[in-house]
Amino acid sequence: MFFNGSNPNTFTPELANLLRSVQNLTRGSYDEYDKNYKTLSTMLKRIIKVSKQENEWSIYFHAIVNLMYLDERPGNYNYKEIIKYAEVYYKDSALYMDKMLPNYSKTTMAYTNVWICQYIFYVYFQCCEIDDAKMDMFMRKYEDVTHKYGERYCYYNAEMKMGILYHDKERAKDAARKFKNHEREIGGCYVCEHRFYLDHFLLLGKAKQAETLMLDMIHKNVPKKYLSWYQYCQNAEPARMYVRVLSECVWSGKKDLFDYFFEKYWSGLSHENRDSSRTDSFKKLLCIAANDFEGLEEDLQDTSEHIDNEKQSTTLGNMETYLRWWCYYALLDKNGIHTVSVALPELETDENGQTAALAVSAYMEAKADRFGSLFAQARAKFDYDFVKASYQNCFLS
Q: Of 29, 202, 220, 222, which residue is 20 to 30 A from 231 by alpha carbon distance?
């Protein structure tokens, strides 16, 4: 629930009514957050404005956290708004945070700095709008924030991800070591906070350590104090975990690890169990690679929808999605499905409304190349050719 622990009765009537409404709309499951996204977003923006006018700084910074949380959820994904409110946070935290913090010593206002930086990071690292200079500036700020307000493991988690993003093994390894030194600080979900730690094992080619950690998290073999988080965590579901591991094997260029995990954990799953994973483009590609064509009609529809909604995704998100569709349609052709019912800009269809699967594949490849080039221009250490070659090696060779 948003603003949990805040008593609306202690605020002015307008702010109190807003807080009550938001609390009521966020008492249920996370699905309710998505269902009420537009209403909650409007209310939170009003709370941000009113709380600033009334100098209610704990409510103000918590409202920014909650708005970014909503914007970061997959069903709502609004990365441009997070970039916008990041600038608001930079300005107002410099003006008011340390000045007002002594007045809120019994609240979690100090931790909002870390939580806001987490959401900013998840967007920044994926966007070509954020170049090397901006990214480096943010990482320095993130490090300062966690050293000042606590939860340093969050910064080292981000550092691990940056190492993985650029295939920088030393950076990832160093961050992982420091993450373990601060692991005891984790107060939330064990699985969610160890995802990048799992990923770094795959980057380093440490299959045994990666598999052990994956299975420990699936089978709840984690410290007892974290077990209650399993009732909320969707990332611990086996199929989702397999999809993540396989995706990171591809990203890291580890075809041997990809083949190992694919054969052991994915190829033998039933369609129903595969379908329990998050329905993203990589899962769809994995299903086709396993000769599972049950969701084909839905996949074709999703192809067009993604192109229609392209502007809502980040540079890296688009690049990866189009790399996956590139391989997906090439595999369809390889498996004897030479035409598909997909209408895309610039592609011709036959009299039956069918398009050649290889033509769709080439279309997707060109889009992936464009977004990969944009990201590589913004990030000097990013190697698009390596990532593309790994997709080809894992799925098309």
A: 202
CA distance linking residue 77 with residue 312, whole number of Å: 7
Amino acid code (one letter) for 315: T
What is the total count of domains within the chain?
Answer: 3
For residues 82 and 50, state if they share a domain.
Answer: yes
Q: What is the pTM of this model?
A: 0.93
pLDDT digits (tens, 9 = 90+) for 230-281: 998 989 999 999 999 999 999 999 999 999 999 999 999 988 888 765 568 9
**If you count them, how many residues does the chain have?**
397
Burial class (CB in 10 A: 0-12, 13-18, 19+), 67: buried
Same domain, 258 and 289: no
The letter for the amino acid at 199 is: D
Contacts of residue 91, defined as CB under 8 A and 6 or more positions apart, other chains included, come to none
Say yes or no: 200 and 297 in one domain.
Answer: no
Out of 278, 304, 329, pick the residue that ends a domain.
278
Q: Are residues 309 and 272 in the same domain?
A: no
Q: Which residue range(s) make up the domain with 256? A: 186-278
Measured CA to CA, the distance from residue 181 to residue 179 in angstroms comes to: 5
Residue 193 tokens read as 């906070």
Tell me, what's the pLDDT at 278?
53
Query: 15-66: per-residue pLDDT in tens?
Result: 999 999 999 999 988 888 999 999 999 999 999 999 999 999 999 999 999 9
Q: Is residue 141 part of a domain?
A: no
Predicted pLDDT of residue 41? 98
pLDDT at 188: 93
Question: Are 243 and 340 found together in one domain?
Answer: no
Match 């007892």 to its residue by tokens.
224
Q: Kindly calculate the radius of gyration of the chain based on its CA atoms and give it in whole angstroms.
A: 22
